[in-house]
Every structure is written in C-alpha cells, then in structure tokens.
Known about the structure:
Layout (H helix, E strand, L loop, with lengths): L16 E10 L9 E7 L12 E4 L5 H11 L6 E3 L4 E3 H8 L7 H10 L4 H6 L5 H8 L4 H7 L7 H6 L7 E4 L10 E7 L2 E4 L2 E4 L1 H9 L2 E7 L15 E4 L6 H13 L5 E7 L2 H4 L3 H9 L5 E6 L9 H7 L1 H10 L3 E6 L4 H17 L3 H13 L3 E5 L1
Amino acid sequence: MPPETTAASPYTRTNPFPAKLVVNRSLCSEDSGKDTRHFEIDLTGWGLNYEVGDSMTVWPTNDPALVDEIIKTLGAKGDEAVKSPNRETTLREALLRDCRITQTTPKFLKAVAERATAAPLLNDLLKPERKQDLDAYLWGMEVIDFLIEHPSIKWTPQEFIDVLAKLQPRLYSISSSLKARPNQVHFTIDVVHYESRGRQRKGVCSTFLAERAENVPVSVFPNTSKFRLPEDGNTPIIMVGPGTGIAPFRAFLQERKAVGAKGKNWLFFGSQHEHCNYFYREELEEYQRDGFLTRCDCAWSRDQAGKSYVQHKMLENAAEIWKWMDSEGAHFCVCGDARRMAKDVDAALRKIIQEHGGKSDEQTNVYVEKLKSDKRYKRDVY
Ligand SMILES: Cc1cc2nc3c(=O)[nH]c(=O)nc-3n(C[C@H](O)[C@H](O)[C@H](O)COP(=O)(O)OP(=O)(O)OC[C@H]3O[C@@H](n4cnc5c(N)ncnc54)[C@H](O)[C@@H]3O)c2cc1C
Ligand SMILES: NC(=O)c1ccc[n+]([C@@H]2O[C@H](COP(=O)([O-])OP(=O)(O)OC[C@H]3O[C@@H](n4cnc5c(N)ncnc54)[C@H](OP(=O)(O)O)[C@@H]3O)[C@@H](O)[C@H]2O)c1
C-alpha cells in the first residue's frame, strides 16, 4: 500500500501523533558493554509522509521511579495542584510530563544557592568566571542530588516546578523507508545508562523507549541540510556511519532496494566488537550476498590491541574510494558523532583526495568545496 500524504495531517510538533511502539529489540548480545536497540513504531492512522534522511521528534515522559523519589524528598504527596509550564495539573503529572527533572538549569542552581544554609562551593561556582569549573562539577549531577544534599531547603510544590526547565523532546534519525515499511518508522538508539556519584542514571528518552513506552508521541523533523539520497538511482553512494550513525543508511538502503535503484552502495560501519555489536548483521550480509550492497567494510574498535575506526578502513581502501568519487561521481555521506568521528573522517577523505588525486592542500580544499556545493558530500552529524 503506498504511503498516504501529509497534506491534511493534523499531526505536528505541537500536536504529535500518538504512535504505538511495536518492536523493541536489542542489537547487541548480552556481553556487550553497549545497549543499542532497534525500535519500530506503528503510525497507522497518521497519513505520514517523510523522506529517508529525515529524523523524528519523540516526546518522552520521565522515569516514574525518579518522580516518586523527588516527591518524597520534597516531603510532598504528589497530588498538590501546580501550574506547570504547559497547564494546571498535579505535582506528579508536572514532574512526569512537563518538566526537565534530570539535568539542572542555572535558575535551579541559583535557587538552591540562595536558599541553602551552606552552599559556599556552589555560590562560588556560579560566578561567571567559573563557568568551566561549574560545568565540570555538574557533569553527572542531577536535580535529585541537590535535593538530597540540601534537605534544609523547603520548597513548595509550585516553587520547585517554577525553577525547572521544560522537558524537551529528542530527535532520532529514521532508520527505515516508507517504501519498504509503510506506516512504520524504525529507530536505532543507543540507550543512555551511566553511573555517577554512586547512582545509576538513565537518559530520559532512550530509557523511556527501552523500558516503558507503549504509546510514543512523535512528529517528523525534516532534514533541512539536504541529507538525502542522490536523485539519480544510478549514482554510487559511499556511506560512513559508525555506531547509531548507521540509522539513516539502513533507511537509504531500504529505499534504494525498494525502488530498484541500480547505483552501487558502499557502507563503512564501525562499532566496538564484531561478535556483539554488529548491528543489522543479517540484513547487511543478505544485501551483500545478493550483490545489492556492493561493499561493507567494518571497523571493530576493541577487537585488537590498537583502535580500528571507519577512517582507517577508508584509508585502507583509498584507491577504490578515489575511483568511486572521481571517476564514477559517487556521493559521500557521513552520519554520527560530530565531535571526533566526523572530523577524522573528513581528514581521511581529504588525504585520499590529496594523495590519489595528486592535489595540493589548496586544490584539495577546492575539490571538497565543490563536492559540498554539488551536494555530493553530505553530513548529518552533531
Ligand atoms: C538530528 C539528530 C538525530 C539523532 N539521531 C539519533 C539516533 O538515530 N540514535 C541515537 O541513539 N541518538 C540519536 N540522537 C541523539 C538523541 O537525540 C538523544 O540526544 C540521545 O538519545 C540521548 O537522549 P536521552 O534523553 O536518552 O538522554 P538525556 O536524558 O538527554 O541524557 C544525556 C545526557 O546525560 C549526560 N551523560 C551521558 N553520559 C554520561 C556520563 N557517562 N557521565 C555523566 N553524564 C553523562 C550528558 O549530560 C548527556 O547530555 C540524535 C540527535 C540529533 C540532534
Ligand atoms: N544522526 C546522527 O547524526 C547521530 C545518530 C546517533 C548518534 N549520534 C551521536 O554519535 C555519537 C556516538 O554514538 P554511538 O553510541 O552510536 O557510537 P559509539 O558506539 O560510541 O561509537 C561507534 C564506534 O565509533 C568508534 N569511534 C570512537 N571515536 C571515533 C573516531 N574519532 N572516529 C571514528 N570512530 C570512532 C567507537 O570506538 P571506541 O568507543 O572503541 O573508541 C565505536 O567503535 C553520540 O555523540 C551521538 O549523539 C549521532
């Protein structure tokens, strides 16, 4: 069945669609240090339309156990009436759905510093010149830590709600194509768990999806940076997506397969260990067997003494990449971590252009800028 169109869709960022979570399965085996999951949500009844490369906005609710702990620590009951950022409701509902109750805000920290009988360190760290020290101090600290640390502070439920920020939705790259999976959206999500100050912490939205979501409010977040498949299905593509950066490329591959695009496809994937972190291994191997996925090069970063990353795999295949890019007009797409990976992959691409194209630094820059302006070098990184 072809996807319905969005023309009359009433579902937007301010009125998200109440989708159903129908699949929640691990992409890692038990001995993995990571918890990366595959989710499928059912959008029947929406009339959804999106393009591969788009993301979705997901509205989580907070962890009820943390909400209960906050209510108890405040000495409240939870049924107190409050005016939250969005509506008049109870303290419990506001903490569950409306407020950011994990990471602190400057407003919250100032309120703590003003009310605490003794908070010399916090007062000092709140000085503008100590911003970096404050950030370091706050790393891994949440609202509940301050409530426990300063039991002398008495908050009315309304005062407490007033110093919290609004709970924000999270974005996730769509990892499926409507042409292959009508009325569905798939996600590939790393579930955030970590320990700090002796407590187990949970990422709000990734654990909402992993541990308790049944209904998931969503809307489409179109990709405005033109992170798209080439218009011509005959154009080869090189996709570099380590970790959950693989998400949009799974969608690209599904879409190209569904429309019978003949262009060659080359995926560079990277993760920690081959035996437990090879996401979508069966699908990718099947694509390779039938010749649809022309090449799949994987970098297992923790399977040997030194690190092996996607950019190392690129450099091992430099001559072939140069041939695809320069002679065959391939598009080069990168998704994932902006802080380190995307910069290193960019440097590897420049090295390949320089060495195999026989170009100077200046000529390499010109070549890369042309790739970008021709929309042949596309990145979805942050
Ligand atoms: C366009 C776009 C697409 C995205 N696509 C995907 C995707 O496909 N898959 C995916 O998994 N993510 C994706 N993300 C990231 C996603 O939006 C969320 O940021 C991520 O899931 C974490 O959200 P959360 O609510 O679970 O965690 P949060 O509650 O937001 O917690 C994360 C925060 O916890 C803190 N923290 C985390 N680890 C530690 C630690 N070890 N020590 C101390 N503090 C720590 C940090 O402050 C961090 O910012 C995308 C983001 C964007 C902008
Ligand atoms: N759509 C998107 O753009 C998107 C989607 C999802 C996530 N993200 C972002 O990507 C980041 C990582 O997410 P993740 O948990 O999926 O990945 P991850 O598992 O942390 O990393 C995936 C692989 O990349 C390796 N790696 C580390 N540093 C690298 C580098 N400089 N160059 C190349 N590879 C490197 C890791 O190796 P080691 O750990 O062994 O060093 C690991 O093998 C997060 O910051 C997240 O916000 C972006």
